[in-house]
Predict the structure.
Amino acid sequence: MAVIGSDDQTTELSRLADRFIRYVRSPSTRMAAFAALLSYLSYAYAHGSWANPALIGVSVFTGVFMPSYAKLSNKADQWANNRFGFITAGRFGRFIPQYAFNLAVFGVLLWGGALNRDGVASVGGFASAALVVTLASQGIQYLGLYLVSRGIGDATRNVLVGLAVNIVIASFGTAGVPIVRETFLVMGFGFGAVLFGIGLLSDIRSVMAPKGGIGLFFGTFNPFHNTHLALVRRAIEERGLVKVVIHPTLVPRIHVDALRKGEIRVARLENGFQIYETTDKADSNADYFPAGRMFLPPETRRILIDLALTEAGLNNLVEVTFFRETYNKKGFPGVIAEIRKSNPGVRLHGLHSTDPGGMTVRQIYDECGWIYPWRVLRRDGVSATAIRKGAKGMTSAVVTDVLAQLTANVPVVTAGGRRFRNDNGVLTEGN
């Protein structure tokens, strides 16, 4: 059945078929299908609406649309974070589209006769039910991802288990079943209070922070550019910091797991950068490269940071450190524990920008205790992505020089009066 009329049409159909197969095999698609089926079974049993067309239609729609809906929520979260730089704004950015979706779902189900009206009224009506479901869902997802960052479970399984529990409790709670109804309300408003409460406390700490102490600055720094330098200078001045400790990401933890599963691979070396790509095992709904797919080796990134700080006259106020073993085992929470151990009782300030990577670091700061966030809204147009594509004028002179030598793939890189061996983009100091 390969003869369709032209080779182009055959190729296009093959591409569409391949995309469809990958979509069906995606863990996100399977998770959405499971959640939709569980939702149908739970609400049908709890509300006695097995053959209700509204429930069947909503369940099918949810199963198909959920992966796209998750992407929309993530983008709304990222937009609000980058626009305002506050955790609370980002959580409202995620909450609003999710609440709108759940509001529409409960409205359709109630209008279609799929829900027990007295049961829904007992939890405050369909708008209240949608609110509680949304709060509980967000809180459970946050808890699941928090556990992942502590090495417990994986993101897909944790979120799936959390959503399954929420769906079952919501279905019976909205049916007015005693005890379950109270559990549903307490769980929703409890998770909501914790989720938004933690975010609000973090935002208050960011604007009411006392001066003095040590700054923490984590990120990929791929490469270290002018905004990074400006952020360090401003933080030292505005917060009165004794020093700033910079620790670059080694292999990003999102990549470690994907590499282990064979979902991504390092495809080639280009201009000193390792180029990552997805494989046939990749989840078609997952974003494996939120910070791009081109990465300088961590050893090279560390050297670029050190050279840039020395050139800027900041090396006496900034410590560039590598806790390789700790990072590989425990990530940045482990690094923070090591810094606290060597600086007991010292006030810590967490530096970050408001792009997705910066807000991810902000969340780590919040989860690791009383760290005062210090954020800078990204408005200067400097972009690591643009630099990796060849943009000029966004890095210090020494970084620009080293990147040019890496592009030329010279065996020995010289910069700032120092010499480095170049082994496929990995810089090592010495002859």
Q: What stands out?
A: DSSP finds 15 helices and eleven strands in the chain. Residues 144 and 158 are 5 Å apart (CA to CA).
